[in-house]
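New to this. Look over this protein:
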Amino acid sequence: MTGCTGQAEAARALAFDREQGRAGFGALLARADLPAAAATELRRRYEEPHRAYHDASHVGLLWLRHLMHGGDPGDRDMALAILFHDAVYDPLAKDNEARSAALLAALVPGDTGWVQEAIRATADHLAYAGSDCRVLRLLDLDLTPLAEAPEVFARNTALLRREYAAVSETAWRAGRRQVLARFAAAERLFRTRLSAIYEAEARANLKAELAALSVAA
């Protein structure tokens, strides 16, 4: 089953630690059923030294949350979309998602058209205007870290800052403020049933960090 329905959780999801995320990455690789060379290439990419946040634990976490919230464990296309959406990652590049989709097409045989479309949509979560509920689910899953407990959210922000080590502190703060302000201004961050679980916590984190950035400015 690969449809739009799924279990709606009444309680907020647990924040997985990074080791659980890495275990999820292993399960995700197994479900994706990749050629051996493709699996090896993905492992190599997600272990690149410049990755602090966008690593194997991040994509593993998304797969675990997909399952936690009633997602179909047999949905290979969703597994591929999660697995490849950050396969190419250069913090200063503007075409990571397009290149990740192209890498998928090069490494995975068969029809991967939907997966490529879904990956490209993650380039701008708020700009996606389509109605494909599975693409929307992918986008929402990718935003769930915005709703972590405050201490986990702060840890993730520190990891993101490490990825932007080449950027000055002034530029980092300005860019971070711009990104978070755009999210905060959105009418809805989450456009699936995950909204009931993650929206309020995400907005609280956005408000708190924007306030901190304003004081620091």
